[in-house]
Design a protein that fits this description.
Blueprint lengths: L6 E3 L6 E3 L3 E6 L5 E4 L7 E6 L2 H9 L2 H6 L5 H15 L2
Antiparallel strand pairs: 1-2, 3-4, 3-5
């Protein structure tokens, strides 16, 4: 049998994709939200496709709020969009 590739669901579009094809957003114990480019940081993770469209969908549908069970300030989405622009789209 071949190696199993973990699948994760994008909180923007709702599609199941390979974990390596998605960006990981984490919430630390301190309640900070950030982009986890390594995929190995500690914290609760939620996954998004590497496209601005999915980030916008997640923002509109409050996907991060559901994933992390907390209110997400607009500044967090703004900083995620900046991080996405710099490191997300390869």
């Amino acid at each position: 049998m071949g190696k199993v590739i973990p699948q994760r669901k994008c909180i923007g579009c709702g599609e199941m994709k390979e974990k390596t094809m998605l960006m990981r957003v984490i919430k630390t114990k301190e309640g900070e939200i950030s982009l986890d480019l390594t995929g190995k940081k500690n914290g609760r993770g939620a996954y998004l496709c590497k496209s601005d469209a999915c980030l916008k969908k997640a923002r509109k549908s409050k996907g991060l709020e559901r994933a992390f069970q907390m209110a997400i300030p607009e500044e967090v989405y703004d900083s995620l969009e900046k991080e996405y622009a710099s490191g997300g789209n390869k």
